[in-house]
# Entry
Amino acid sequence: MTDDRADSRADMRHITHWVFDLDDTLYPSDAPIMAQVERRMTQYVARLMDLPETEAKVVQKSYWRDYGTTLNGLMANHTIDVHEFLDFVHDVDATVIKPDPDLARHIAALPGKRLVYTNGSLKHAENILDHMGLTHLFNDIFDVEASGFQPKPLQAGFDRFIGHHALPAHEAVFFEDSLRNLKTAHAMGFTTVLVRAKAGTRSEDVAMADEHPDHIHHAIDCLPTFLGDVRVRES
# Structure
């Protein structure tokens, strides 16, 4: 018989729903995917507003901070084709990500429903997951359009996500690299796991080594290692 007091692994035996952010969470933040997305968002804003890219980047970041996503800032202040925007900014080279067989094996072993909840587009999520060999392991992908363009960390987006899946938050764990997204998840009853950014990547809204805010239940540096060690309920 296992002595629970001597078992230091994260206890996830109450979890029935495993929710994963996509970008900088399912793959390491030093993989240059979001750098491509950020660059293309800056190009889109520059073209839309006829600005130099240095000024467009300032506008882009201010929209991200004030509206949750650059897209929501654009929707609030301009007339745009949202699908054109999503297709343009997510036209990235996914081959820069190295598939991780250990990650796939550990996700496959998780009991219950496995979901991706992303502020990106469905097409982008499918592109990344297909390249990583993970698509078949998830029950659903909930993208920014499914949220009614109410992105994380907005409560309305989480409400849509929970309602769509009839998801019991107290039996769900949420893996994310974003501190503010996890703050909303924590307030709703999720178990929260922060996937820390790699050193030198993405300076805003991420936690580096040794940071562990109060709304974070677990802060980790390697997703496959953590998933391989967690205690789960019997299937």
Notes: Residues 78 and 148 are 18 Å apart (CA to CA). The radius of gyration is 18 Å.
